[in-house]
Amino acid sequence: MSENVVIVGGVAAGMSAASQAKRRKPSLNVIALEKTEFVSYGSCGLPYYIMDIIKKHTDLIAVTKEKFKTERNIDVQTRIEAVSIDPKEGKIHAIDHNEKKDVVFPYDYLAITTGASSIKPAIPGIEHPGIFLLRTLDDGIAVKGYIKSFPVKRTAIIGAGYIGMEMAEVFKGLGFEVVVIEKMPNILGTMDEEITSVVEKTLESNGVRILKSTEVKSFDRKDSGMIKIETSNGGFDVDMVMFGTGVKPNSMIAKAAGALTGAHDAILVNEKMETNIPHVYSAGDCATAKHIVLKKDLYIPMGTTANKQGRIAGANIAGGDETFKGVAGTAVVKVFDLEVARTGLTEKEARDYGFNVVSSVITSRTRAHYYPGSKPITIKVVIDKKKGKLMGAQMVGGEGVAKRIDIVVAGLYEGMTVGELSRLDLSYAPQFAPVWDPLLVAANDALKKV
Amino acid sequence: MSENVVIVGGVAAGMSAASQAKRRKPSLNVIALEKTEFVSYGSCGLPYYIMDIIKKHTDLIAVTKEKFKTERNIDVQTRIEAVSIDPKEGKIHAIDHNEKKDVVFPYDYLAITTGASSIKPAIPGIEHPGIFLLRTLDDGIAVKGYIKSFPVKRTAIIGAGYIGMEMAEVFKGLGFEVVVIEKMPNILGTMDEEITSVVEKTLESNGVRILKSTEVKSFDRKDSGMIKIETSNGGFDVDMVMFGTGVKPNSMIAKAAGALTGAHDAILVNEKMETNIPHVYSAGDCATAKHIVLKKDLYIPMGTTANKQGRIAGANIAGGDETFKGVAGTAVVKVFDLEVARTGLTEKEARDYGFNVVSSVITSRTRAHYYPGSKPITIKVVIDKKKGKLMGAQMVGGEGVAKRIDIVVAGLYEGMTVGELSRLDLSYAPQFAPVWDPLLVAANDALKKV
Predict the structure, then answer these.
(1) CA quadruple A302, A305, A311, A315: dihedral positive or negative?
(2) Full-prediction pTM beyond 0.90?
């Protein structure tokens, strides 16, 4: 008899796990349960769907439910919400929102890939219409629908993280006024100030108002549909509010079934993506990931990690012996004309974790001095003071940032020193870099401090 | 008394050596001799100077002769041609083309940074006006002057290497007809066929005619100024010919003084950039460079290497103890809308050197499937068959190639395996890559073959 594999959650990690398990061992009976209507969509594209540079929400879907069935022989069931796991019996209890009834799925192997939910702070009035989160495809559809039906002119974004930055560009692109309200003293809290100050200037020059160290106290909705925001820094009337205040892992049903959790209450997994419950795997935004610099299990939800972990979970469910090597904390975000990226540890993070580090910040250009279209690029390199081992890097510039940070990513995985970095035979042509690549300039500068 | 440092050749390696020596040890008396009128120019920009997207030849100069004097206290003497070295006496004999007289420069330390010359094959008629090389700033000025004064319509490029490819784009951009004549059966001989076939299609779709396996027999110049080219594949009438048939090291005076040479007769240097003659260093396009994959001294002249080697020669002349770690054979070239890059060994090179390798070629996209403006990218990864160690990679695509190849560069220096490559936490946002970066797709595909 063929074994049952049940996947709970049908987005990045879940559908990667399902696909990999089925590909490796076609005899498996793979069922994926998804709470919403949609599976396998690119949630990172939601801001651009709202901006209308991606026209239809279906464009965000990589593989449809139907195609999973016909092309991969995976049974995807949508609007099925898993509510509890019975590890002893090997069963999942769920609610079928289509038929409005309870259902049970027996499993031999289970992958919990329930993802994460937006954090919705307990602010009075947060339930008013016109106040949105942006996490699921449903969220994106709701936001786009609101903008079409309501004469939006003024918007507020709560939280100056990645989503907040992207949405500032989106709302400006749609012609709205934008105020970004951030509780902390800095925007982009996962980056150091030398980088965020460059981003801040760009936001301002694009007409985005930024309020830092500002707490939202309450929302009120007037009869006109306008939302009044009270903050520690005064009040604002806007037509629409978008929250980008981070996410939390959907680990509740796993915990209830006895799964151990780690950082941020995410499901603790080992490098095979196993939880502590036999035959139960987890992956993606609901799970932890080992940080390769810190050698600690952290919670850093990312679409790329979800795909990688999901694939490994699927491979191991199918009898494989794959391991997840860990994350470097890499991220890149586009903010107007800037590309902003990080990997490893920021200086602040490194110091908070007790490392003895030094750093170097340089500003160079993205092309040869004589080649037109060159843009500034600022690079910060964080290194171990004693041996000069790379601990992390951050970059902000007009082009060539996303893949330039990846050179440092490779270095972090290999334990490269900044001296070794400074000697790399990096590619050069006048269109793509100065003859001394900005990263080499940064490395040479940092080298002086070891 | 202060020591005399003489630098022979005032472009990339030479002026890097001069600057570094003086910076490290200001008491040194540093003199740089340059045969032509120009020092410290970016020869990689010459095609774009001809295309007129760089307006003045002086725009290509990074630091002028005068600035070297006033800002760095380096005595740059132009139109001084070194003709022989007397290592016993510690003297350089030279011709001063300004004063038309012989001159002698005593040295305590010498850096030979004489660069390379274009290879001008012994083809009958090659001396005719309208037939050009492209190596020095003088060459660039001559080509641009010819185009301004002569009604050029049809051009031929001999040699389909990097310069040939760039010049094809330049001449097309100027509205000329272009035929590229290549002796070998493939264009871009330093890349494998899976990559060059993509480039070839782009050349053709841009109206560039390509003749492979075609040898030039002779040139003849008609009274009209038109040049008749006879080839093994028929005759052509063109208005102008550009040679891009590679370079050879200017190692003659070093050899005459007893310097050992290596590959392609380039001056053999150790990792400190010392030649076998005491107190005589060499760097740049006239010298060898250790290949980090092959662990052999090769001749791979590149502007980036010249800068790095020059800096190390200068540092060591000033009493430092710096070493050059070697090159990876990295190169990138823009050809119309394509970026084409390589590092490490091609499959052909690896096999020629006797390695047991396998390779993988994949084609993916440069952005998320739903994000507009995505372009195809083809990646070839070459790995050691036994252990999966990275041996090299090549890429061709519409964007994001130059710095993506550098991820592999970092891996090559660290002895990374393709399995390790496949696990890197590379940056992702929909504008910059699909959620599985094309390089990870290539690595995962190659991994199956280990």
Answers:
(1) negative
(2) yes
